[in-house]
Amino acid sequence: MIGMINRHAFIFCRMAFDIKRSLEKRFPWEHVNTSVILHVSFFIIIPHHLTYETVFLLGSKLHFGMAKIKTNVNRASALPVRFTLDEWHVNNQFRYRCSEAQQELSDRRLAEAALACESAKEIVKANKEETDHRLLEKLNDIEFRKAELLRVRKDCVLEIDALSVYKERLANVLKSVKRNALVICEKCLAARERRLGIDLVYDDVEKNLLKEHDAIKKAGSLLGRVLQETCEQIRKLKATLYHLDRDLENKESNLRIDRRNVTLKETDCTRSVCRSTSCFDKSVALNEWELQTNTNIIDANKEGNSAKQLRCYVDTIIKKTIDDLDKQKNDTNEAFRQRIEETREAKTKLELQHSEIIKQVAAMSNNIANLKKTIADKEGYMALAYARLNYRCQRPGMECTQDFVEANLVKEIHELRNVAANLQRTLCEAEGSLRYLLKTQVQLEEDINVKTNTLKLDEVECATLRQSIDYRAY
Hints:
Blueprint (H helix, E strand, L loop, with lengths): L1 H25 L11 E9 L3 E9 L26 H108 L11 H60 L22 H108 L10 H63 L8
Antiparallel strand pairs: 1-2
Helix pairs in contact: 1-2, 2-3, 2-4, 2-5, 3-4, 4-5
């Protein structure tokens, strides 16, 4: 504003000097006898209804327009001042020359005003064209940054969806491991605790079941940690997506405003808008604006890369975990198979032995019966020999001799006693053997029952349970 005032003041001062030079050329000062001073006032009206008065004093002896003439006339004299004819002519000539000077000055001012209007028009047009060009550049810049934000937002949304799928996969694998495999493994361990007798042994099946139980628990802990990392990465991606959406919303508002600014004309706005500068203090530096968008894009790319790495890590962890658990499951199943075969083989052998023992018991029972019958038969022969010997003792006198018959009877009785004793001993041994056979039979039956119980637990219960163990990567 001050610069504009000074510029107008300078212009009108030049006008005053031009008037002075023109008057001096047209009118010689020495022809005027009266001493006068020229007081010229120029009133300048500039924008905002401010008035600036430029005063220029011409040390001369002239009088024109609004100039005030100060004469050295004696104020005390009451007589009117008389002028000469020359002074009259000079005054008229001065008036004519002043009029011509004012006309020339007016023509010059008109030309200068036209030139100033043309210059102002060109300046305004150039400024508007420059502003329009800058607005178009800004629109292109915003469109480019908006496209970049949309691209990274699309990638961010895709990563969120992909991680959500991976989160569901991890949850399913964890559920399969903890609620299925771990429970089945614990049931198998609890079932094998119901084995009986000698079969309650710490065998390879027990070792593999305990190893599998430990592997399942470790796999569950690992999958749980990876699931937490996946949830945290999804949270970070959603936070990044929130900032991207806010930035895109602001960019869209900025585009809408600047597009409206591009279509605006000078006739569309009121003059009161010119005095509104409320937004100037709220403006953000261009580097801060660029830094915010660049930061959002960099953060989105960073989180997207982290999500991709996490998905690769999840794939690796799931595959390795499933492979390890499958291998351990196969090892445990193989241990079960071998143990079942061993138990079935032992049971088969016991059953064969049991059948042989039954046959032996039957044979021994028949043998004992035969021995008893033989002993009974031998008792008849013993009674016969004794009866004959007793009858021969009833012979009279010299007839009661120790002849060969008596000797043979004595010998027969003696041999029959030995045979009876031998048969009795054999019978006792047979009965003892029968008792041991029966005891062995009972023991074999108990062992067979133990093996049958073990087979039922391992082959029926545990094997059936383990068929539902299914490790899948989902």
